[in-house]
Amino acid sequence: MSNDAEGLIKALGFVAWSDNRLAPEEREMLEHVMSALDIPAARRDELVQKLGEGPPSIESIGDDFSDEVERRFALAQAVMMAQADGHVDPAEKRDIDKLAQALDIDPDEVQMIMAAVDVTKDLVPDE
Fold this sequence. Notes:
With 127 residues, the protein is an all-alpha fold.
């Protein structure tokens, strides 16, 4: 598994834990992402178990990414994770901002990414 994939999973896990729990919708999203990244089943189980115990350290996340595009993609995915249960609460917004800082993404760009994700969520049909 690449460092970018590991960083993405950590970023998603960090934001998922903003409300001090891992909601079923968030766990499901994590499993879908890991499957899409072709993370082997054994490693997937290991990551799910680790994420079930608590959030990853914010300090370790920024070092996992190889480039700026991957960092921005991870932030956009984290915003989607925050929206997985239907709303973004203040704790999730706080942790999105912390994640953005760890990923060295400017606050103005964070707002643009959040707005772009918000617009595109309405384009994806409900399952």
